[in-house]
Amino acid sequence: MRAINFFIAIFIIAGIAGCGSSADTNLKRGIWRATLTRDGQQLPLLLDIFENPNGKSYTIYSVNGAERLRLDTAYFEKDSLHIPMELFDAEIVASLEKDVLKGRYSRLKEGAVVASLPFEATFGQNFRFFKDGEAKSKKDITGKWSTLFINPATGDSTVSVGNFTQKGSEVEGSFLTPTGDYRYLNGNVNGDSLFLSTFDGSNAMLFKAAIQGDGSLKGALWSGIKAYKTWEAKTNPEAKLPDATKLTFLKPGFDKVDFSFPDANGKLVSLKDPRFKDKVVILQILGSWCPNCMDETNFLAPWYKNNKERGVEIVGLAFERSDKPEVSNPKIKKMINRFNMDYPVVLAGTNTDEATAKALPMLNKVMSYPTTIFIDKKGKVREIHTGFSGPGTGKFYEQFVEEFNGLITKMVDEK
């Protein structure tokens, strides 16, 4: 009898263990509508989930309108789904019950949670703000908008340009600032209200606005764990930002950039190296933590593969959150692999004003990530472009690409 009881106990334990190990197989594949909750607001996002061939991990995309942004490989551990976003020091950890995930979106520092928001996702819901047919409006916000964002806590303001297209009630586009853009925004106009959001792992943003009687917009922006701004916008076909090539410049007495920094494998890279001699060189000031840098790298990496034989080189100068190689080099390597970067990326320091001033003392200031420096065959700086207008900005991105290619062709053709 004792033997029978023993085998029954073993069978029960095995059954329990089997239930625990099969939790990941219950995660349905397809679109999940998720929300992050803060200050009484829900920041909606869409996740598209696929099971990997190994049957133990998942590929997950954050869907922002036309963008499908791949997150790091997700997996189950202790009956919770883990969605890491290592480059951005963030993760989602959620438990699964039927078709609902509940947990937290957390920001990390050296692996420890420093802040978080409630996260919940439901399978099979593929709308961001409103189900099909629910949002209705006679308003149309298509066009360019002169916009002002204000931080109520500090009084600081940022002049921006909104650029949107609307089809029916659906809206997509972005806001451009002097130092970059808010990437792919997607949402709806319903009645006299505008709703937009985006999620790229680093940034979770919710924009709301009321359309005023005169057609202007007044609203608020909830960003990340605690950032909050108010904003106002007026339609303006001529809206534009300060010239991005005039914001960052060489100090008097300088006409060149010089540096020597180690790459992720410890090898020193300098513009004096033979590979750069008599070539056009592009310096990409970036960070692995920077979404706008990610957009620029998505452009530069394939561009370099197609154009390096023309006598053009690119060097990435990474300013990371830590100047410790053991902390930052793995992230730089992950970034290089993720975006198939075929050019050197060096660890130049931390993303602080003091560190950038020490690393690049010839510049007035590194105002934005990314910042792109164009150097001619003689080693002289020809142009410095602050920020990057990514694909989410539409015509602004197309204009950047055209101007970029024009400048490179001009410098390559010079004797």
Q: Any overview of this molecule?
A:
The protein has 415 residues and is α+β, with helices and mostly antiparallel strands. The chain folds into three domains: 2-123, Lipocalin (Beta Barrel); 143-235, Quinohemoprotein amine dehydrogenase alpha subunit, domain 2 (Lipocalin); 260-413, Glutaredoxin (3-Layer(aba) Sandwich). The protein is 19% helix and 43% strand. It is built from five helices and 25 strands. The strands form four sheets. The chain has an eight-stranded antiparallel β-barrel. The radius of gyration is 24 Å and the shape is globular. It starts with a helix and ends with a helix. 36% of the residues are buried. InterPro entries: Redoxin, Thioredoxin-like_sf, Thioredoxin_domain, Thioredoxin_ResA/DsbE_sf. Residues 250-406 form the Thioredoxin domain. It comes from Dyadobacter psychrotolerans. GO terms for molecular function: oxidoreductase activity.
Walk me through the topology.
Elements: H1 2-21, E1 30-38, E2 41-51, E3 57-64, E4 67-70, E5 74-77, E6 80-85, E7 90-97, E8 100-109, E9 112-123, E10 143-150, E11 157-167, E12 170-177, E13 180-181, E14 185-190, E15 193-199, E16 204-211, E17 217-223, E18 227-235, E19 260-262, E20 268-270, E21 280-286, H2 291-307, E22 312-320, H3 325-339, E23 345-350, H4 353-359, E24 371-375, E25 381-386, H5 395-413
Domain Thioredoxin: 250-406
Protein name: TlpA family protein disulfide reductase
GO molecular function, one term: oxidoreductase activity
List keywords for this structure.
eight-stranded antiparallel β-barrel, Redoxin, 415 residues, Glutaredoxin, alpha+beta, eight-stranded antiparallel barrel, Lipocalin, oxidoreductase activity, Thioredoxin-like_sf, 25 strands, TlpA family protein disulfide reductase, 5 helices, single chain, disordered N terminus
